[in-house]
């Protein structure tokens, strides 16, 4: 239930935006079977600071 659209504002620097673009494209390209596991890993790692919704 991660709000991808609202999380795209983190971080504000250009390099981070490029990373997020690649990162989210990778998630969206994954299969339905893999996506829930990826979301769990994202919410459980240090990216929690970047995505407070997790």
UniProtKB/TrEMBL annotation:
Its lineage reads: Eukaryota, Metazoa, Ecdysozoa, Arthropoda, Crustacea
Q: What is this protein called?
A: Uncharacterized protein
């Amino acid at each position: 239930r991660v709000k991808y659209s609202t999380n795209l504002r983190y971080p504000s620097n250009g390099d981070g935006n490029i990373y997020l673009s690649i990162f989210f494209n990778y998630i969206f390209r994954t299969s339905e079977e893999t996506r829930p596991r990826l979301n769990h890993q994202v919410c459980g790692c240090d990216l929690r600071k970047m995505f407070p919704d997790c």
